[in-house]
Structure formats: structure tokens, C-alpha cells
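Project outcomes to date are best conveyed with an example. Our students and postdoctoral researchers have been running inverse folding experiments weekly, and each run begins with a structure described purely in C-alpha cells. The record below, which covers 534 residues, was selected by the lab manager from last quarter's runs and is presented without edits.
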């Protein structure tokens, strides 16, 4: 009896052991299967991301995380997808969650750096990029990020070197190649820029037909420029000083184009990377397009305008002469104030440029020991660092009363009035400063009607402030689409006209000298804000 009972117990124990073994085997067998399924889902999401199907990629990454919230690769993939969609806060949150659980994730730090750079926080972005590279010295996203900091801070030659390394490490990331093309063009390596844009079109997603058309037109233009002997050839005197008008807070000078005897009215425009000439004036001069392609988003009208490139043989401003000047050709919509064109940064950056709103004098000086020795003693003022956006706009940090952090604003002598973005106005509840008037704004793409006007209590640029400054509220998404880092407003002529401005592009600084006596207030009935474009 005892023996039978012992045998029975032994059999039961053996059966239990077999069942446990089977359960363990099932678990061991299922684990690789689940991992394999997760890998396949992640691969599909990564492929969608590469193909520019950002909504699909986001959906797939979120589905993976719904099943396993600890999947760091999926969370980093989601963060990168949201970054490409310019959903910066969400992208930041997911990268930060990975860092919270894995502080040594180089990719997470690189993503965090990329997001905060796009939001305009340069100091924090550099810290994150350097942390990423201390953890993994070939993290391509961090290398490219630091290169773009160099690019924005006017060290374009250094940026080209960094971007080339990022492309070498990850040759299939379109953003690195696109940024390399931009930096090459900024350093006037036009053939290299065109080649990089060609490579971008090969590997970039085919989803944005208009952007691809825009880049094809740009490639044609760069190929044309590459065939010219040289661009922006400086001639005439080393220094010139001429008067300008300020009919609507914008400095308007007389210039001569292509040796014509009749002067043309051009606005000095630090809100334009390249110079611009009106369609009407181009036709009168017999100036024909050398390339075209796609449309650009901009302020006003339907929000877009056709991109047309031109080329002028010579531009004379006072006693200086600049030969071989690329230009945009587009329609101007303000028919009340006659303007033939805009002198952009690509021209005035060749000189030490002084805009004195008090004496209404523009001075252009080539850098040399003689001009430096003869320069007048500086008046009281401050020097501020300037950055340049991907689209070629000057950008500086300003403070607005009631907003607790510095903001990136475009510094635009070509804008009649200052501007705050709709996004900033909503985010910081600036509606409480709204005035009971509506504006009509002329932008690059047409006319914007019924525009809100704010009376900002105080805006500070460096250590100088202006109180009760008028600012239009505009949708700046079209500008931020190509800016590279967020611009939340524009410092326009109604602020700048109270200063003597000295632009030292070689050093990347703007010197502000307050006028001894403030100029009379100008209250134009129509306003120009011309920034925007490819």
C-alpha cells in the first residue's frame, strides 16, 4: 500500500514537473516570437519614416509603445518622427523619457539637442550635443547638430566640415545632405551645393512634390552661378556714404542697375538673404529669368509666390559697385509706395554697413587698415551677437515684458512695423495688449487684411528697450518652415529707427547706438513685411 502510494506521488510529481517544463518551454519559445514581431513592427515604422510617411511612422511607433512602454528604440523613433513633423514639445517629452530611464543614451541626448535647437535654445542644445558625443563620438545627429549651430552663428566653413562627417557616418539621412547643400551655398561653393541637392533628391522622400520642384529650380540656379567667373565682385571706392529716405520706417536708397542712367529706388533690407527686384522693373531693364521652379511660402495673399531667379551685371550704390549679383524676381504688391527692389544681406554683408536713422545716411566700407584708422570714434552703444537662419535672415534675441525667456526675432530693416507670431501671442496670452484697430500688411505673397495690432508694453534688445511698441500679429509658420530655428517675431523699422545701426558681418555682431534725439513718429497707413521665401 505504501509502495503504491509512493509511486502515485512520484507520478504526480513527475507530471507537475513536466507541466512546469512545458510552461517554461512555451515562455522561452514565445519570447523570441514577441521580440521578432516587435522588430518587424519597428522596421516598418523606420521604413515609413525614411519614406517621409510621418503620420504612418508615428502611428506604428505608438502601437509598439502601447504594447511595450519600455521599448526605448521605438520611443526614440517616435521622438525623431515628431521632430520631423515640427511637433517639438512632444518630441522633447519622449526623448526626455528615454534619458530618465537611460541617462547614457547618446541618441536621446542628440535628439533632445536637436529639438531644443529647433526651438531656438542654442545654449542647451550645445550641452546636449556635447553630452551625446561624450557617450558616442560618432553620433551623427549630434555632429550634424553642432555643425548647424556653427552655420546659424555664421561659421559656415566650419559647418561644412561637420556636415560632411555626419553624411559620411549616415549617408542615407536626407536632412544632413540638405543642410550640407545649404552650408556649401552659403560659402559660395555652388557646384558642391548643387551636387548635394542632387543627392538629396535621390534619397529624400518623394512625398513633397512642391519642395522637390523648388529644389530642382535651385539646382538649375546654382549650376548657372557655378558657370560665372565670380559673384559679388567689389569695385569702385572702398567707402561710400549716401543719404536715404525713410517714408515708412524703411531706409530707401537710390541705386543704378546694369549701368542704367536712371536711378532706381531700393529698400535696404536685412530681412532678405538675397536681393530682390520687382517684375515690373525687371521687364523695363530687359532682365530675364535664368532659372525658376516651385513656389515659396510667405506672408500675405495666398501664402505662396512663384520662385524666379535673375542675375544683374552690376549694382551701383553711391561710389561702390558690385558686379554679378544674383536676385529674385517677383511681384511687389504695395502700389502706393514705389519700390524697384530690395538690397539683401548677400550684398551688404560684403561691407561694414552703417545705417544712421538720425542723419539718414548709409555708409558702406570695405574692411582695410585705412578705413579702420579713419573710422569715427564710436558713440555710446552696445554690441549684440547676430545669427543667420537657414533662409538667410538675421536673427537676434529680444525680451518682451511678461514673457519669461529670450525670444528669437528677425532683425528686419525692410519691415515697416514689428511683428509677433500668432503662436507666441496665443502661448503667452498677448491678446490683452490688443488694440481696437486692424492693419493691412503687404507681404512677399500678397496682401493680408484685418491683421491684429498689439501695443507691447516693453521690448528689449540687448540693454536697450522701447516702451509701447506697436506689433502686428502674423502667422509665421511660412518663415519657420525654412528658418531652421524658431522665429517668434520681427524687430521692424518702428523699433530700429531710434538707433544708429552698425552691421559687422565678419564678426557677426550688430552695434546699436541710440539717437540723441528721437525721430518724429511715422504712422504709415499700410505696412510692408517682406520676409519669406525659399
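After processing, the design step wrote out the following sequence:
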Amino acid at each position: 500500500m505504501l509502495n503504491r502510494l509512493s509511486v502515485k506521488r512520484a507520478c504526480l510529481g513527475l507530471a507537475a514537473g513536466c507541466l512546469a517544463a512545458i510552461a517554461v518551454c512555451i515562455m522561452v519559445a514565445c519570447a523570441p516570437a514577441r521580440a521578432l514581431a516587435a522588430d518587424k513592427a519597428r522596421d516598418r515604422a523606420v521604413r515609413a519614416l525614411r519614406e517621409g510617411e510621418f503620420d504612418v511612422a508615428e502611428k506604428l511607433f505608438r502601437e509598439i509603445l502601447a504594447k511595450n512602454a519600455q521599448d526605448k528604440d521605438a520611443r526614440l523613433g517616435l521622438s525623431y518622427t515628431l521632430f520631423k513633423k515640427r511637433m517639438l514639445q512632444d518630441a522633447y517629452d519622449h526623448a526626455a523619457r528615454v534619458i530618465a530611464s537611460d541617462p547614457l543614451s547618446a541618441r536621446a541626448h542628440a535628439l533632445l539637442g536637436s529639438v531644443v535647437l529647433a526651438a531656438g535654445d542654442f545654449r542647451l542644445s550645445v550641452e546636449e550635443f556635447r553630452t551625446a558625443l561624450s557617450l558616442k563620438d560618432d553620433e551623427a545627429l549630434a555632429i550634424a547638430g553642432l555643425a548647424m549651430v556653427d552655420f546659424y552663428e555664421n561659421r559656415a566653413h566650419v559647418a561644412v566640415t561637420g556636415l560632411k562627417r555626419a553624411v559620411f557616418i549616415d549617408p542615407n539621412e536626407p536632412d544632413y545632405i540638405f543642410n550640407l547643400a545649404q552650408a556649401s551655398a552659403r560659402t559660395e561653393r555652388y557646384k558642391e551645393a548643387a551636387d548635394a541637392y542632387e543627392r538629396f533628391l535621390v534619397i529624400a522622400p518623394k512625398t513633397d512634390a512642391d519642395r522637390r520642384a523648388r529644389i530642382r529650380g535651385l539646382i538649375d540656379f546654382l549650376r548657372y552661378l557655378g558657370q560665372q567667373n565670380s559673384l559679388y565682385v567689389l569695385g569702385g571706392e572702398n567707402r561710400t556714404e549716401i543719404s536715404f529716405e525713410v517714408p515708412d520706417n524703411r531706409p530707401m536708397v537710390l541705386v543704378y542697375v546694369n549701368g542704367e542712367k536712371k536711378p532706381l529706388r531700393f529698400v535696404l533690407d536685412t530681412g532678405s538673404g538675397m536681393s530682390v527686384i520687382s517684375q515690373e522693373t525687371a521687364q523695363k531693364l530687359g532682365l530675364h529669368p535664368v532659372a525658376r521652379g516651385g513656389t515659396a511660402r510667405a506672408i500675405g495673399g495666398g501664402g505662396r509666390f512663384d520662385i524666379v531667379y535673375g542675375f544683374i551685371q552690376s549694382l551701383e550704390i553711391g561710389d561702390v559697385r558690385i558686379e554679378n549679383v544674383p536676385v529674385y524676381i517677383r511681384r511687389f504688391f504695395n502700389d502706393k509706395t514705389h519700390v524697384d527692389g530690395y538690397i539683401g544681406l548677400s550684398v551688404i554683408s560684403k561691407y561694414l554697413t552703417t545705417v544712421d536713422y538720425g542723419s539718414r545716411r548709409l555708409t558702406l566700407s570695405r574692411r582695410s587698415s585705412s578705413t579702420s584708422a579713419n573710422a569715427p570714434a564710436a558713440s555710446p552703444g552696445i554690441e549684440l551677437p547676430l545669427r543667420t537662419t537657414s533662409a538667410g535672415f538675421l536673427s537676434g534675441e529680444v525680451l518682451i515684458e511678461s514673457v519669461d525667456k529670450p525670444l528669437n526675432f528677425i532683425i528686419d530693416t525692410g519691415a515697416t512695423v514689428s511683428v509677433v507670431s500668432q503662436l507666441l501671442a496665443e502661448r503667452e496670452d498677448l491678446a490683452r495688449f490688443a488694440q481696437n484697430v486692424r492693419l493691412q500688411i503687404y507681404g512677399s505673397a500678397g496682401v493680408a487684411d484685418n491683421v491684429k495690432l498689439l501695443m507691447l508694453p516693453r521690448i528689449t534688445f540687448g540693454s536697450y528697450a522701447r516702451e509701447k511698441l506697436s506689433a502686428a500679429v502674423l502667422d509665421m509658420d511660412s518663415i519657420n518652415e525654412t528658418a531652421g530655428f524658431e522665429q517668434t517675431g520681427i524687430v521692424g523699422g518702428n523699433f530700429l529707427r531710434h538707433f544708429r545701426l552698425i552691421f559687422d558681418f565678419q564678426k557677426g555682431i550688430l552695434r546699436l547706438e541710440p539717437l540723441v534725439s528721437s525721430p518724429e513718429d511715422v504712422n504709415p497707413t499700410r505696412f510692408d513685411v517682406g520676409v519669406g521665401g525659399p
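Confidence is low (pLDDT under 50) at residues 1-16, 18-31, 369-374. Residues 2-50 form the longest helix (49 residues). The training component of this project remains on track.
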